[in-house]
Fold each of these.
Amino acid sequence: MSFNPFAVTAATKSVSAQSAIALASQKTGVDFSYLMGQAQLESGMRTSARSGTSSASGLYQFIDQSWLRVVKQHGAEHGMAWASDAISTSSSGKMVVSDPETRRAILNLRNDPQTASLMAAEHASDNKDALESTLGRDATGTDLYMAHFLGLGGAKSFLTKLASNPDRSAASLFPAAARANRNVFYTSGGQPRSLSDVYDRFAAKLDKGAGVATGTASGPFDTNALTMASAALEIDGSTVIPGNGEDSGTQSASAWAKATLDQFAGRVGGPGTGGDKTQLASLIRPTPASARLAYMMLSTMGA
């Protein structure tokens, strides 16, 4: 029987990006705050976002090859055996789908928030295990974002060099990525950023992204990361914010989330009051706080 991608599209349940991320966190054990921050940083929580410089698409801006790889590995676990079975690996290591119509249907799943969130969580979990094996320590959310930005091999190199020589120019280590992402690797004045500078800027963006995504952050948010991340991924080869339409249950969850995220980011009582940003960025396991937030969100959906 031939495959009908339109039937899959029609069967896909429409949910908000935030709700989909909460479900993915619950199912995979990946930290809710990290997934929220990454989605805000990648796409501004827009499920149909597309990059103008690469094949990156969807809530988490997966490029074609990265998406096919993660669906091949984890699709069957989440009811997508049809997609996983259709993907194979060529002799050159490229992920291929023989039928063009099926390939389009699989790639289009990047724009479904539920599927995108689940695959992003599984991808983060895989990267976490690999990074911790190399680094000999727990991986933080920023470590995982480096794997998303530079690919796993690039992240291992970046983080290893960061530990031994944090002041080294990041552009000297990743010249191709630097050419595609000058605002990541260079200051506005053209000075190269160090490895620690690049790492700290991404850590701050993830913290800010988590706050913006849950409606708890104030001030503008730099959305240039969508172009930056997708371009780097291609080189490596490898918004739904609570607003006027939310109900009282979601308002309560959002209010609680603000207090929690403020505490994590050190904003309770003003900057520098001892909040633990590492806890916000950690993907070791869901924190009790992020788990409670995810549970509260799910309860408002009747899950």
Amino acid sequence: MKKQDINSIKQLLSTTKKIVIVPHKNPDGDAIGSTLGLYHYLLKNNHKAQVITPNNYPNFLKWIPGENFILKHDTQTKLCENLINEAEIIFTLDFNAFHRTGNMETVLANSNAIKIMIDHHQAPDDYATYMFSDVTMSSTCEMIYHFIDMLGDLDLIDANIATCLYTGIMTDTGSFRFSSTTSTTHRIVANLIEKGANNANIHNNVYDTNSYNRLQLLGCALNNLKVIPEFKTAYITLSQKELNTYNYTKGDTEGVVNYGLSLEGVILAAIFIEDQQEGIIKISLRSKGNFSVNEMSRAHFNGGGHTNAAGGKSYATLKETVEKFISILPTYNKALNNE
């Protein structure tokens, strides 16, 4: 972020402001961690801050400090839109295009508030007054740490902020195993632990508290796993009927796509999840090396993300979506087999 922009933001935040903080639709650990980390920081600077999510999020994120103060646009629409319209500053975190907020797109686009984007995804839209965009960063939570540092306020990081930021860094780096995890990431995490983040408890809260139904659904997903060895590809399908059988709740399929990627020789993994309520097939793509699932998702599945992790959607049936996915693999044969 430019020094001039940081100085302007410092000046902007030097007096009490009405601030709204927004993540993307279906927020994950990095989205919730970054918004709540920033929320606690702004409160310590005497701002009137409010986190508003487009919709609900998984239960394994509902222990994070400050989570009980989050408002949800889909169920508290009027209150949320009033706060957005009254806001002097809107922080948009972990996304870089308003359509990623679902039904909040219009009210955010029409807001007269100063907008500050902090995000690590590719190809940002040009809507923000101030933009901190860096695709090399492991997570938006790591960026929030740097943002607080640039404002000269690292001493304000307490156990609550540290816990929020650690959660997002941990989840978006796959527990620090993805290539985006750098030596700087580890130094930041060490500092967050020193500030009060209990790494063992955080890991347990996110990963080690499963319901019986969630494990049964995982078994179903793994039973549906298919491998296409000539294209070094694996994919998983989950129909709405299968989700209903195991009483699916939001977050139950988090990380399941990585089981496909863990197979020896697999470079590309996908999961296709039927969502009859939204009328779409939700798609998550993962890859190893330099194979870009971001480019694949943008080109074929109305999505995007990072080089090695992206999401998308299809309006076709589950069967038709999988057939399309298989049909485009020959196009990527050289790239997949060169990895």
Amino acid sequence: MTTLGADMRALVAGYSPRSARDRMELADFTRHFSNDAGPVSRGDGPNHATASAFVFDPSLTQIALVFHGKGRFWVQPGGHLEDDSSIVDAALRELAEETGLIATHPASPLVYDLDHHSLSNAFGRCASHLDVGVGLVVPMESPLTVSDESGDVRWWPVDALPHDVPAGFDMRVRAMLDRMVA
């Protein structure tokens, strides 16, 4: 996991906070990933990294969300890091596994956010996830596939997200959109 640890450390070092929330997240991630041996795998303890994909249509008015079976909420596709080459590769893999959507590696500069969130007991020994959410664009015509991990997958208008999303999710979507159009 040294490669993923180094990649996480580079993403944290390169993150440009745009709000008080971003500055708090950056400080938290910096504490966890101050060296290449940060908690990148599920085996590194109850608080560890994940990667996710904020997938928008080309007009940036629709977002693809999955209904998370354990959490019982709508959220962007994502999950634990595995034998991935990078955090972005992990987000792309999770996207394909959970939705069937295939996205290409995003061009530079990478648009991403940091989010450390606590988890309920439904997640077993995982107490929190230090998530890197990557911004992506795919055509809405791409077919969606429901996976074993998701109860449903569908496109939602960014201005009319479902009611059952995690706390603060709407702000995270809005911040990602702001980063993507900047």
